[in-house]
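QA checklist item 7 of 12: single-chain prediction sanity check.
[x] sequence parsed
[x] length recorded as 233
[x] structure emitted
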Amino acid sequence: MAEQLLFDLPSRVAFERDAFLVAASNAEAVALIDSVADWAPPVQWIYGPAGCGKTHLAAVLAQETAPLRLSAQGLAQSRQLEALLQDQAEMASIAVVVLEGLDDMGGEDEEPLFHLLNHMRQSGQKLLLMSRAPAMRLDIGLPDLASRLKAIPAVAMGVPDDTLLAGLLGKLFSDRQVLVSDKVIAYLVPRIERDFSAMGQLVADIDQQALEKQKPVTVPLVADVLNKQACLL
C-alpha cells in the first residue's frame, strides 16, 4: 500500500449557508438569520461564546443581503457610521447593519450606539447586534442605552452537544483540507474543551503535527498532540 502523501495546503473556511451545522444550541439563531426579511421589530440580537458560529452566521447574512458590518469597539470614531447617519439615502440603501463586539465597546461608544438604535427604530431599517454576553451582563454606563438594549429581542447560541461537536470537528478539518476517519472524531469528542476557539486551535495543531511528521491524522497522532497540550497547562 502506497504511503499517503501530505501537503501543506492553504485552509479555506466554508462560510456558505449549507456549511453551517444546525443543532439545538444554534437552531433559533439560524432561524433568525434565515428570516431576516420578516424581522419585527427591525433590531435583533444574537449572543454566545467566542467561536460559537456568530461570525459564520454574519457571513451567511452577508452573502444574502450585503450588510454593513461595524465593530462596536471604536464606534465613536467610526467615520463610516457618522457618514451613514448623516446620509439618509446611503443608509436606506443598506439592507442590514451588523454591529459586532458589544462586549468590547468603550464608554465613548455608548452614545453613538444609542443614536444608531434610535435611527434604526424610527426608520424601520434592520440592525443585528452580536456579542458574547447578553444585555444584562454588559457594563453599560448610559442608563437610557442600558434600558434600550435590555428591551431588544435576543437569541442565545450555546455550546455544542456531542453530535454538533463531531460535525464541527469534521468541518474544521475539512476547512484545512485534512481527511480524518470517524475513529479520530470519536476519540476527540469526549476529550476536548467545548470551546469553539480552542477547537480551531487544536485542529490547527493536529494538522501541523501531521505535516511535520509527514504522517496522516490518526488516533495515536491526535493523542500525542493532546498529551503535549496537557503538559503545557
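[x] summary fact logged: Confidence is low (pLDDT under 50) at residues 1-15.
[ ] second reviewer sign-off
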